Amino acid sequence: MPSTLPAPLSASQRSRIRRLARPVDPAPGDEAGELNIVPYLDIITNIMMFVLASVAVTFVGTINIQAAFAGPRVSEHDVHALHLTAIVSAEGVALTTADGHIAPGCGAIGAGVTVPKRGEDNDLVGLSACARRIKGARAESALETQVTLTASPDVPYQTVIAIMDALRSDEAGELFPAVHLGVAR
């Protein structure tokens, strides 16, 4: 019975197969092969997924306030202008005018926090009463409608809004409806 096994390879045949199977370095100017961009695309996809997952959504709220030019207003050049400023801090609200700082209790000019906090909350009724007292102190102040509100960075947003509302009006009527937001320096 004849054998169906292939004949063994000679040494020269094995040498030739090894030589042809060995990778050949590309000649200068020839491309080294195709560029594999799959790993690059995997990295970009992962980065995009991370960016999309970590984007913060910002909700914007608006508050209707009068424009600075609305309503009666004392001229900027008037020496009797009030220039009321409310500075909100962790201790309470300090009020200043063109005449100087308003002392605690809203009675006179002096240093200190004009309307200190009561416990953890600001005294909004006391702040409105103090604003009413300042507005009624001089005849020229009755025409004032502007207040500049400045808050330190550690004051919560809700507190700033509550103080803004207390300065805009009270139960007796309008106080300082034109609220300007200032930057603490």
User: How many angstroms separate the termini?
Assistant: 107 Å
State the shape: rod-shaped
What is the mean pLDDT? Answer: 80
Structural class: alpha/beta
Helix run count: 4
Percent of residues in helices comes to 25-40%
pLDDT < 50 runs, ≥5 residues: none
What fraction of residues sit in β-strands? 15-25%
Helix-strand pattern:
HHEEEEHEHEEE
Tell how many strands the DSSP assignment holds.
8
Global Rg: 39 Å
Largest sheet: 6 strands, mixed
Q: What would you say about this model in short?
A:
The protein has helices spanning about 10-20, 40-55, 125-135, 155-170, and strands at about 85-90, 90-95, 100, 115, 145-150, 170, 175, 180.
Feature tags:
rod-shaped, 29% helix, alpha/beta, single chain, 16% strand, 4 helices, two-stranded antiparallel sheet, 8 strands, six-stranded mixed sheet, 185 residues
